[in-house]
Known about the structure:
Strand content: 5-15%
Shape: globular
Radius of gyration: 18 Å
Distance between the termini: 22 Å
Structural class: alpha+beta
CATH superfamily of the largest domain: Ribosomal protein S4/S9, N-terminal domain
Strand order of the largest sheet: 2-1-3-5-4
CATH architecture of the largest domain: Orthogonal Bundle
Number of helices: 9
Amino acid sequence: MARYTGPKTRIARKFGEAIFGPDKVLSKKNYPPGQHGNMRKKKTSEYGIQLREKQKAKYTYGVLEKQFRNLFHKAQRSKGITGEVLVQLLECRLDNIVYRMGLARTRAAARQLVSHRHITVDGKVVNIPSYSVKPGQIIGVRERSKSLEIIADNLAGFNHSKYAWIEWDQPSMSAKYLHIPERADIPENIKEQLIVELYSK
Length: 201
């Protein structure tokens, strides 16, 4: 399945959450999209609930099905609780770190910055959004991209103390990925245990 490029509000309404950021339409229409969206909801099966949670996680982080499944298997092979490790693996993707740094307002925009070679890791340009950032690595803006108006606008007023695992340095427009965040510190509303149950069937 290709990456979804349609209206973000439609997906947010489907899940009843602003998974892509603040959404004015969602605040007015907090029911699923479509002709019958405002009618009484049917009871969802256990499988349906689990599948919905997986889809929500995929859309939130902008990950394709094959990528998501590979991350899950990697989480299974790792030490720790599989669901928590899965969310941590999603968090350490380069596009997500760029988003957390405040360089982009959405993960899709962060992915574009990476793909267009505006981002460096330890001083070297990396244009792979799914690149897994390791603790201790420095993520920065490429020298000739520091003057981009969109980056300056996004950084203006951004609270860089929001995430304790990212240490921002304003003069160099870079950040150090200090450590893998604890699940309790990751703000995404994802019930990862339901995803583990889905893949365990």
